[in-house]
Amino acid sequence: MAEKMKLEIVTPYCKVLDMEVDEVTATGKLGEFGVLPGHAPFLTSLKIGELAYKNNNVSEHMSLNWGYFEVCEDKIIVLVETAELASEIDVERAKAAQDRAEEALKKLTSEDKQFKVYEAALQRAIIRMQVAGKGARK
């Protein structure tokens, strides 16, 4: 069994991360899951949520926005719309996005076309603030 896994996180704009890690946890469509070296191959979809990885007993947290997570032979490939490290998140911008989404949702019903758009924006803002808080606790 390998001691490390290669983790690659890619968005449509760039490769965000490419490194060896000890473990990874992420938020899939069916819930949170973890991966250690030697994990069986699998592919799953990700929802708006958090990805955490540990390398040499140091944990890092990221905010992810929808995508796919694949494990194959101690290599993890994560393809997502956006990915931000906790240290890169602008909390005030995320709070402003949360406020805008909450205001818009107050005026809409679940049948409105824009309801899902603002609901997703609210989820992204909340996750970004939660992840940023974890980065600040180091």
Descriptive keywords:
138 residues; alpha+beta; ATP Synthase, domain 1; Single alpha-helices involved in coiled-coils or other helix-helix interfaces; 2 domains; 7-stranded mixed β-sheet; 2 helices
Overview in brief:
The protein is α+β, with helices and mostly antiparallel strands.
Overall average residue pLDDT: 89
- CATH superfamily membership of the largest domain: F0F1 ATP synthase delta/epsilon subunit, N-terminal
Helix content: 25-40%
Query: Structurally, how many domains make up the residues?
Result: 2
Number of E-state strands: 7
Please give the alpha-carbon distance between the first and last residues.
30 Å
User: Given the structure, what is the number of helices?
Assistant: 2
> Can you write the helix and strand succession as a string?
EEEEEEEHH
Q: Under CATH, the topology of the largest domain is which?
A: ATP Synthase, domain 1
Main pleated-sheet profile: 7 strands, mixed
Structural class: alpha+beta
Computed over alpha carbons, the radius of gyration is 16 Å
What is the approximate shape? Answer: elongated
Q: What is the topology?
A:
Layout: E1 5-10, E2 15-21, E3 23-28, E4 31-35, E5 42-55, E6 58-72, E7 75-85, H1 91-107, H2 115-136
Parallel strand pairs: 1-7
Antiparallel strand pairs: 1-2, 3-4, 3-5, 5-6, 6-7
Helix pairs in contact: 1-2
